Amino acid sequence: MTSAPHHSEVTLRVNGKPHTLRVDNRRVLLDLLREDLELTGSKKGCDHGQCGACTVLADGRRVNSCLLLAVTLDGSEITTVEGLGGDGEEPHPLQRAFLDRDAFQCGYCTPGQLCSAVGLLAEAAAGHPSHVTDPAAPSGRPVPLDRTEIRERMSGNICRCGAYPRIVEAIEDVIE
């Protein structure tokens, strides 16, 4: 392969599978996922990191893939909505809860909502506080997730259809 200016080789582990690609240094992760790897679950909503439709997990943390340059993630583990169920035999518990609770309407935001919810569960379990976490809560201990905490942690994901109550209920179902 010839060396092209403004291009780099990037290796990502996406949904458990390694991918080595030569990408333009200016290319964002979302475009790489959708166009190069044909993982179209993550959506391009606002293209400014404000709606959350493009949310994926990078090394277990939720990120707006429309804002991250793919080259900055070399060596990272990326999980998209297609990879939440693991081997694909069974849906992730959050995917099942979203279906059971009818926590989507048009479905456009659902992949980002699901990835964000998986991320928030991990963040709370690791003791990461949010803006509404009680300041007196012990540092580094799991943060209890009530409706206020869930709403705050999901506030970066917009649902234009207004399925928010069902989304919160679905997340609560998984916590129980």
UniProtKB/TrEMBL annotation:
Q: Which residues form the 2Fe-2S ferredoxin-type domain?
A: 8-84
Q: Which PANTHER family does the UniProt record give?
A: OXIDOREDUCTASE WITH IRON-SULFUR SUBUNIT (PTHR45331:SF2), OXIDOREDUCTASE, IRON-SULPHUR BINDING SUBUNIT-RELATED-RELATED (PTHR45331)
- Give yes or no: UniProt keyword Metal-binding: yes
InterPro entries for this protein: 2Fe-2S-bd (IPR002888), 2Fe-2S-bd_dom_sf (IPR036884), 2Fe-2S_ferredoxin-like_sf (IPR036010), 2Fe-2S_ferredoxin-type (IPR001041), 2Fe2S_fd_BS (IPR006058), Aldehyde_Oxdr_Iron-Sulfur (IPR052914), Beta-grasp_dom_sf (IPR012675)
Q: Which Pfam family, just one, is annotated for this protein? A: Fer2_2
| Taxonomic source organism | Streptomyces eurythermus
**Alphabetical keyword list:** Iron, Metal-binding, Oxidoreductase
State the SUPFAM superfamilies in the record.
Answer: 2Fe-2S ferredoxin-like (SSF54292), CO dehydrogenase ISP C-domain like (SSF47741)
What name does the UniProt record give this protein? 2Fe-2S iron-sulfur cluster-binding protein
List, alphabetically, the PROSITE patterns matched.
Answer: 2FE2S_FER_1, 2FE2S_FER_2
